[in-house]
Design goal:
Layout (H helix, E strand, L loop, with lengths): L1 H53 L17 E2 L5 E2 L3 E7 L6 E6 L2 E7 L5 E8 L3 E11 L2 E2 L6 E5 L6 E5 L5 E3 L4 E8 L4 E4 L2 E2 L1 E2 L4 E7 L3 E10 L5 E11 L1
Parallel strand pairs: 2-9, 11-18
Antiparallel strand pairs: 1-3, 3-6, 4-5, 4-7, 7-8, 7-9, 10-12, 12-16, 13-14, 13-17, 15-16, 17-18
């Protein structure tokens, strides 16, 4: 009787030890999994939650740029005297749309074709500086913006004032080298008798001209970035 009881006690102790061992192994496995994969799981869940709550209910288009390559704009002139320009480029996709932004506002949208090329015709500029950039929207996913170009629309010819010398002015001995000076629009170039003058950031210019005996014709030309020009002529005389 005593022997049978001892066997039962040993059997219970053995089972308890096995259960304890299995419990310790299970705890160790759970602890290992949490240490190894816990941060990734937490990060993934956090990203899913953030994406869900940050999605705009007013705009069904996802704003991530991950899968869609940004388009490329063909080079654009830095300045023009025309109120409209043509904008072309390459989009790398044959489906989707390309959006044109002018001064940070959506200006126009074109569907893409098998050529993957696009062309916006007669894009109207505002007087002054115009910022141009594009992006692609494919399967409701927006690409990053392309390189931004700046186009200056200069409608008219530049202003030109000649401060000195005066027309018909006479110079004598000691005044053979005179200063031709005046003012033009900021960013314009000045040429005096075909030679480039110094122009500061405010449009003030000066050029030292060596006079010849007798009458000297002086031609001053101001040219802005768009190629528009204003010209003035005067005549001075020199007698040593």
């Amino acid at each position: 009787m005593s022997t049978e009881r001892s066997r039962r006690i040993r059997r219970v102790e053995t089972q308890s030890k096995k259960q304890l061992k299995n419990s310790l192994i299970t705890v160790a496995i759970i602890f290992f999994v949490l240490l190894t994969f816990g941060p990734y799981v937490i990060g993934f869940l956090g990203g899913v939650i953030e994406t869900f709550f940050n999605r705009s209910s007013d705009d069904p288009t996802i704003t991530t740029s991950a899968p869609v390559q940004a388009p490329v704009l063909d080079p654009i002139v830095a300045a023009t005297s025309s109120g409209t320009i043509k904008i072309t480029g390459h989009a790398f996709y044959s489906t989707g749309e390309v959006e044109l932004f002018l001064n940070s506002s959506l200006y126009d949208t074109l569907p893409l074709s098998s050529s993957q090329e696009f062309e916006f015709k007669n894009v109207r500029l505002v007087i002054g500086t115009n910022a141009v950039k594009i992006r692609v929207v494919k399967d409701k996913i927006k690409s990053e913006f392309s390189q931004e170009y700046s186009v200056t629309y200069l409608k008219g010819a530049p202003e030109l004032e000649i401060a000195s010398p005066n027309d018909k002015q006479s110079f004598g001995r000691g005044d053979q080298n005179i200063s031709v000076s005046g003012k033009t629009d900021n960013g314009s170039d000045i040429a005096v008798n075909g030679f480039r003058a110094i122009v500061d950031s405010e449009g003030n210019f000066s050029y030292t001209l060596t006079l010849q005996d007798g009458e000297n014709k002086i031609t001053v030309v101001a040219t802005n970035q768009a190629g528009n020009s204003t010209s003035k002529e005067l005549t001075v005389s020199y007698s040593p």
